[in-house]
């Protein structure tokens, strides 16, 4: 723990030294994100948009630094260090710089750039540029492979001209030995290069995946739901495309293309102006392949995403499809899409085949034209027959990579569009775009206020909330009620900023919600959705996600407080019971509801928001929740939506919504009162609707 504190303290000092005082005091005041380890440090710096690298420490590498750095030695506390001319300095306890004493092993976090509002529109290229460390070995290995690749044609030439032409078989063993040596170097350098490329592509793909996932998590919910699931999946697959391209044959072909220059220079040295032939053929190769590629690309399947979408829909709605008995409609729709999918893929595959055949024919044609032109030079005795044979062999070293690169052109196009998509995605706004660093006061129940809040999910939709103005006192238990789709869930989500209003605002303890660090706010507030999702894992894993440090006993207590005693009993009182079998949840939606409620109660937060907490649950669960509510009264602000009369009756305040507007906000009206006929009371459920 003390190591963690040291790291946190050093990070605060680093932020101060970088001039990021607001960020430093945010971290100083943040008591929630304990323990503060290297993972927390990584997330924090990303959140504050600092560009950084973590490397093995060596004093020489400090020459690259322009900002103070964080030195994390293996066996001693982290320190802020900096380069001053030729010397390294560490920040002492009194905030004074002094010479660095420990120069032993450890890691160094180098800050490359400070947060900027400028959006990086070339995020993909920027990420790729970070991999420069790998370019050098790939370059040298490719050069070695290209030079040793000359051996076979040159040795063949020597055999023709010296052994056969010169009648001196004694040089043959030397030539054979030289050829064997060159081939073994060629093979080994190619093997090592393949390993380096696989390593680079995997690291690059991993970095892209991490960035994409981090970005998805930090985007506003409204943007995420507007874009749709299939788009998110396709974004996550971008990384896979890069992995396949870089480590596959297309990547190898592309890397080899510049090295064809070595073969061209050798042809020029061996045969003089004969090099013009392969050069002109390469130009012709390029134009022909450009045309055929265009022809192939014009047939790229356009239905793939619709087809994938309908498969996802079918998988999601299997129960409804089966129970409705109307399989026919789905079947017909699926068959139609499947037929079209196959037709488009067939045309595309046919054209890709044509592409590959044309590329192959162009390679053969280049070799043939070189042979026919070269024969005249041999007959003129301008070059030896061995030189002509060597030139023809070298032609394959030029057309091979070109053919590979051209035949993989659809993969290159795919990666190009993936890069563009990635760049666009990285410029989308996130919840961290503005500096939101205030932390909620976690020591007491908060007071909430909605001020003229208006919220639409899309520009052409009716507002889900319209001009909502209502105050909620600290520690109040508030029931939000009203007909379906009147905006109850939206109001709960707006209270913790998960959906953002277009007009009006929400305050917590008098401070606009937009000032709070969204992550810290939601880590503190407890929200239980109406439909709970379970994650593959045990009962304990599922409850613990809201508070990873909770003990098993705390999990069980939270489950009991949520009314889940019967569920726990059914699971043999085993908190480590697996909830999934063959990828499917073993629990019903109602049983999942207990887990969702337990997650919220486990946090012991002073702000609890529950969306239909006991819908369809048994009477015991309701009694338990009433008891839990009674305990929370006064010291926790609770907002819940419900249609249950008993739950509503115990509330301190009721907010009645209709079509997104407040029709009543105040104490729960007494149903037995003489004016119970009035409009407010008539909205209240008159009897227990559940259980
Ligand atoms: N993610 C969303 N995208 C688009 N529209 C939405 C979204 N969520 C809710 N809505 C719309 O906003 C309106 C209010 O929905 P909301 O879920 O807040 O109502 P509710 O009172 O909680 O409904 P219910 O009682 O059925 O849960 C509805 O018309 C709904 O269709």
How is this fold's topology laid out?
Elements lengths: L1 H16 L3 H9 L8 H10 L3 E6 L12 E5 L5 E6 L2 E5 L5 E3 L6 E8 L9 H7 L2 H17 L2 H14 L7 H47 L2 H7 L1 H19 L1 H8 L3 H12 L4 H22 L6 H13 L1 H7 L2 H53 L5 H23 L1 H19 L20 E8 L9 E8 L4 E5 L6 H8 L7 E6 L2 E2 L5 H7 L1 E3 L10 H6 L7 H10 L3 H6 L9 E2 L2 E2 L3 H14 L4 E5 L7 H14 L4 E5 L3 H5 L3 E6 L2 E6 L12 H5 L8
Parallel strand pairs: 9-16, 9-17, 12-15, 15-16
Antiparallel strand pairs: 1-6, 2-3, 2-6, 3-4, 4-5, 7-8, 7-10, 10-11, 13-14, 17-18
The structure holds adenosine-5'-triphosphate.
The site of adenosine-5'-triphosphate has 12 residues, from helix 18.
Short overview:
55% of the residues lie in helices and 13% in strands. It is built from 26 helices and 18 strands.
In CATH terms, what is the fold-level topology of the largest domain? ABC transporter transmembrane region fold
> How is the largest sheet built, in terms of strand order?
1-6-2-3-4-5
Any ligands, ions or cofactors bound here, and which? adenosine-5'-triphosphate
Query: How many runs of DSSP E, i.e. beta strands?
Result: 18
- Approximate helicity band: 40-55%
**Mean pLDDT over all positions:** 82
What is the straight-line distance between the termini? 48 Å
Classified by CATH, the class of the largest domain is Mainly Alpha
**Integer tally of domains:** 4
Shape: elongated
Major sheet size, sense and barrel closure: 6 strands, antiparallel
Secondary-structure class: alpha+beta
- For the record, the CATH architecture of the largest domain stands as Up-down Bundle
Alpha plus pi helix count: 26
- Poorly predicted runs are 676-680, 687-691
Proportion of residues in extended strands: 5-15%
Main location: membrane
Protein name: ATP-binding cassette domain-containing protein
Keywords: ATP-binding, Membrane, Nucleotide-binding, Transmembrane, Transmembrane helix
Pfam families: ABC_membrane, ABC_tran
């Amino acid at each position: 723990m003390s190591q963690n504190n040291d790291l946190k303290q050093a990070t605060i000092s680093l932020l101060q030294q970088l001039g990021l005082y607001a960020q430093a005091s945010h971290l100083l005041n943040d008591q929630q994100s304990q323990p503060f380890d290297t993972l927390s440090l990584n997330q924090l710096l990303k959140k504050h948009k600092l560009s950084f690298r973590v490397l093995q420490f060596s004093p020489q590498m400090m020459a690259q630094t322009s900002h103070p750095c964080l030195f994390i030695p293996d066996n001693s506390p982290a320190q802020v260090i900096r380069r001053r001319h030729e010397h390294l300095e560490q920040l002492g306890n009194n905030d004074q710089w002094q010479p660095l004493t420990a120069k032993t092993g450890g890691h160094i976090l180098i800050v490359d750039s400070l947060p900027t509002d400028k959006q990086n529109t070339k995020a993909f290229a920027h990420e790729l540029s970070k991999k420069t460390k790998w370019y050098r070995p790939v370059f040298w290995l490719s050069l070695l492979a290209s030079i040793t690749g000359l051996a076979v044609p040159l040795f063949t030439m020597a055999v023709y001209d010296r052994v056969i032409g010169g009648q001196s078989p004694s040089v043959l063993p030397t030539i054979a030995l030289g050829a064997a040596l060159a081939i073994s170097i060629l093979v080994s350098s190619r093997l090592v290069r393949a390993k380096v490329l696989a390593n680079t592509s995997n690291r690059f793909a991993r970095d892209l995946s991490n960035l994409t996932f981090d970005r998805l998590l930090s985007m506003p919910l409204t943007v995420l739901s507007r874009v749709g699931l299939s788009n998110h999946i396709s974004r996550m697959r971008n990384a896979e495309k890069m992995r396949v391209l870089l480590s596959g044959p297309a990547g190898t072909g592309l890397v080899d293309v510049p090295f064809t220059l070595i073969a061209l220079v050798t042809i020029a040295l061996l045969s003089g102006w004969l090099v013009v032939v392969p050069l002109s053929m390469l130009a012709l190769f390029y134009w022909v392949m450009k045309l055929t590629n265009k022809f192939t690309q014009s047939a790229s399947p356009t239905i793939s995403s619709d087809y994938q979408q309908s498969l996802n829909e079918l998988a999601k709605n299997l129960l409804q499809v089966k129970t409705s008995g109307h399989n026919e409609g789905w079947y017909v729709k699926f068959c139609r899409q499947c037929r079209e999918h196959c037709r488009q893929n067939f045309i595309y595959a046919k054209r890709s085949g044509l592409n590959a055949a044309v590329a192959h024919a162009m390679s053969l044609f280049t070799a043939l034209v070189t042979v026919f032109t070269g024969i005249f030079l041999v007959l003129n005795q301008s070059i030896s027959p061995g030189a002509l044979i060597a030139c023809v062999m070298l032609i394959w070293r030029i057309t091979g990579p070109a053919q590979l690169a051209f035949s993989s052109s659809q993969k290159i196009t795919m990666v190009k569009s993936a890069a563009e998509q990635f760049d666009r995605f990285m410029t989308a706004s996130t919840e961290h775009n503005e500096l939101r660093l205030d932390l909620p006061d976690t020591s007491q129940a908060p007071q909430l206020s909605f001020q003229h809040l208006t919220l639409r999910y899309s520009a052409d939709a009716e507002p889900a909330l319209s001009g909502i103005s209502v105050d909620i006192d600290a520690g109040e238990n508030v029931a939000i009620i009203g007909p379906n789709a009147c905006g109850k869930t939206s109001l709960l989500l707006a209270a913790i900023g998960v959906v953002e209003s277009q007009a009006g605002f929400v305050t917590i303890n008098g401070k606009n919600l937009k000032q709070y660090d969204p992550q810290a706010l939601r880590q503190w507030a407890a929200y239980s959705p109406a439909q709970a999702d379970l994650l593959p894992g045990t009962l304990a894993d599922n409850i613990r996600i809201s508070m990873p440090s909770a003990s098993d006993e705390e999990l069980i207590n939270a489950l009991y407080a949520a009314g889940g005693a019967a569920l726990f009993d059914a699971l043999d009182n085993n908190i480590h019971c697996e909830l999934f079998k063959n990828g499917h949840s073993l629990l019903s939606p109602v049983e999942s509801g207990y887990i969702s409620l337990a997650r919220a109660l486990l946090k012991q937060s002073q702000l609890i928001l529950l969306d239909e907490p006991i819908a369809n649950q048994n009477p015991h669960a309701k009694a338990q929740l009433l008891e839990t509510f009674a305990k929370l009264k006064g010291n926790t602000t609770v907002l819940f939506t419900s249609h249950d009369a008993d739950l509503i009756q115990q509330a301190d305040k009721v907010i009645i919504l209709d079509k997104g507007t407040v029709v009543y906000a105040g104490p729960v009206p007494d149903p037995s009162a003489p004016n119970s006929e009035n409009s407010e009371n008539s909205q209240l459920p008159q009897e227990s609707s559940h259980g």
